Amino acid sequence: MERAQQRPPTGCALELLVHGVGGTTPERMLDDPRTVRITGDDTAAVFRRADDVDAETRPGKHRGTPVPEAYVWCNLTSGNGARALWLLLLPFMVVNLAHWMRPGAPGRPRTTRLYGLLVRLAGLTLTVLLVAAACEVALDLTAWQCAGTRACAARHSWLGFLSPAAGGWWSAPGRRLALAALVPATLTGLLWYLAHRTWSAYESQQPMSRDPEPEEDTGSGSLGRPGFWYGRRLVARLRAAHTAAGLLTVAVAIAAPTAALDRRPGGPALLDVLGRFLLVALLAWAAAVLWVVCRRGRTEHLLDRRLDRHLVRQLPLGALLLLLLTAVYAGWSRPGWTSAGRLAGDTAFGGLALGQGLLVVALGITAHALYRTRPDPRAVLRGLGGPAVAMLACALGGVMSGGVCQRVADWLDGTGTSIPGPPVMLTWQASVIPPLLLVLLVLCGRLAGRAWRLARALRATVERDHPGEPSDPERTRRIARTRAMATLTDDAPLVVGVTSAATLVLGAAALAGALGTGRTPAGAAAGTHPALQGAAQTAQALGSWLIGLGFVLFVTWGRRAYKDASARRTIGILWDVGTFWPRAAHPFAPPCYAERAVPDLTWRMATWTRSTGGRLVLSGHSQGSVLAAAAAWQLTPPVRGRVALLTYGSPLERLYGRWFPAHFGPAALGALHRDVDCWRNLYRLTDPIGGPVRLTGDHGPEVDHAPLRDPLAYGRTAQHPLPAPILGHSDYQADPAFAEERGRLLARLRPDLPAPRHGPPELPDGEPLAGREPPGGTGAQGSAGRSSA
């Protein structure tokens, strides 16, 4: 790399464009129907205009303007229809986000590791919850309750061979449970397969080799560490542990009722001993799973290429062997054994809810301790954003589990009287949904009222921003309303905080009600005041209907996304934002596309500057600016000296800096500003996503440009004879300030005539900055298609 900087400069400059969420095409990014792939594959690639393929050999053609080059990464997230199934992994993705939301606290490595451990344990409970819900549906509701009840089995002929009335070999309760265990076991195997397949495609992308760095947080940002985007060892360990945990959950669901029967007086002594042995073995293997999850976190200060192959193979295989032994044990003949009532679902789901609540509380205490080390007033919820999001992940898991169980129970039991139905705990959890929605409705009403009042107040500001223009009240109202709506993004922490707090309180009440009374809310309220009885019955019925409706809508959206490209693109946008981070807390979360995109950008910038010695502007829009910043962190200092950073519509500080303060907080962004040679950020007041970076002169020259005008013209002008649109988050390159600021960055990078770092330099060819068009002659109108949301 040092030799690369000693090459004679060619005078060529490159603008590497990185699009945002939702994706786009290279033709739109480059504003040319003829594009050529320079490097990459069908998943992610770098493109140029056909006329610019050999631009390095003809530097005079682009004198004063860079050669545009587009990095297209949208197929990493929103490609084929199978990825719509990732919607079912939403709780895993959310809890993985909570891992990265810890407050920045240099000098507190033990507390930081404790935070990561608690989030990994919360992720493990979500895996157990998902498999437990599958066990509830397949083993309890179907094989135990419905198949064991004559009326229910008669309504479903496909259960006839399991019914005791048929007298077949499979009619024994233990054999029914063993057969039904194929459903949750297959689900666990499917999750393992998806995690392994994506692990091979994403985590196997190796970043550029660099010298190891100390594990201590030096304040320069953890995203610059050599092994940050290479977590294949941890993901492999967690995949093995979570797969084993899922198989053990199925084994316990079979072994617990069978062993309880064998422990009764007069039972076969051999089966009693075998049952106790299996339970001890399951407990010991569960302890091994916990040890693997707790033993080791991420290794970021170096590229850890090793794999724990024996552990990765033996942990799931041992759990599978125990599951097979448990199925054989349950299938042993036990005359007189009949299935009645429910399995121990209340104990299982109640224990999971209690464990998740305690983990969230412990996570909140740990996050508060980290926040006190270095308070950041801009951090979400004073450093409690991670615990709040972890609570939402647990709530999502509970809603999905309860919805599945409720819908299946309603389908199996048409009359509602033939089988006991789902566990009481799930009914209590469904009953707290109506008051939770009421709290959210009140909060959203207050936020809408505040936005309306702000829009009215901003009308005077909009008129002052356009002095001398003819008055147009409707135009003024539209601009003011757009600005007010854009501020709602900053209220997201309040919504998340209130939702999480209400969920924690109502969940604790549901747990106390389920374990304290052992009856449904309506049953517990029986004999009390009529108003209380009516409220309990209404909450139970409405909650059951809502949780079932939510599950149906969830599945419907997934089916639509599988068939409809536009719906799949919408889900892809969700993954673009949610899967930027590596899988550190849950291996079954959707894969991290940045583990492919960041090395792609790093390799491209390093190899291009090495071969040409030219200047490079890394130009990122929206989520592309986050990828650009992450790639700039990964560059070595000699390469960073030839790279300028241009961000627009960027959520770096507004979203990532507030929600992920340890990685994009003021210290990290300030270090990035010092590391790259120059950086400029563009934003609009009408943009609901992008915003200022808020770096002052203490870190060097000002990063933020003044807010861009939007719309470009208030009324009709000679340059805009038709009404100019309100652009908001899109089409930043349509603003003349874009080419102006890009030219200044290139001038500052000029190797033979460096511009003063604190002054506004001129373009290399001495032409005026104002009115300069982007490369290829695309002006304010022609470049409109080059920016993507």
Strands, total number: 7
Beta content: 5-15%
The helix content, as a percent range, equals 55-70%
| Alpha plus pi helix count | 26
Overall shape? globular
Q: Tell me the distance between the termini.
A: 35 Å
Low-confidence parts lasting 5 or more residues at pLDDT below 50?
A: 1-8, 752-789
Radius of gyration: 30 Å
Judged by helices, strands and strand pairing, the structural class is: mainly alpha
Average pLDDT works out at 84
Lateral arrangement of strands in the main beta sheet: 2-3-4-1-5-6-7
Note the main sheet: 7 strands, mixed
Task: Walk me through what this model shows.
- Helices cover 55% and strands 5% of the residues.
- The protein has a domain at 2-77 and 593-786.
- It starts with a helix and ends in a 40-residue tail after the last helix.
- Strands 2-3-4-1-5-6-7 form a seven-stranded mixed β-sheet, with helices on both faces.
- By secondary structure, it is mainly α.
- This is Integral membrane protein.
Put the structure in a nutshell.
It comes from Streptomyces kebangsaanensis. This protein is mainly alpha-helical.
Keywords:
mainly alpha; seven-stranded mixed beta sheet; 789 residues; 55% helix; disordered C terminus; disordered N terminus
Architecture blueprint of SSEs:
Elements: H1 2-5, E1 13-18, H2 26-30, E2 35-40, E3 45-49, E4 67-72, H3 90-99, H4 109-146, H5 150-155, H6 173-180, H7 182-203, H8 232-262, H9 269-295, H10 309-330, H11 345-373, H12 385-412, H13 424-431, H14 433-465, H15 473-486, H16 492-517, H17 521-524, H18 530-563, H19 565-578, H20 594-612, E5 615-621, H21 623-634, H22 637-640, E6 643-648, H23 652-659, H24 661-664, H25 666-675, E7 678-682, H26 736-749
Parallel strand pairs: 1-4, 1-5, 5-6, 6-7
Antiparallel strand pairs: 2-3, 3-4
Helix pairs in contact: 3-4, 3-12, 4-6, 4-7, 4-8, 4-11, 4-12, 6-10, 7-8, 8-9, 8-10, 9-10, 11-12, 11-16, 12-13, 12-16, 12-18, 13-16, 13-18, 14-15, 14-16, 18-19, 20-21
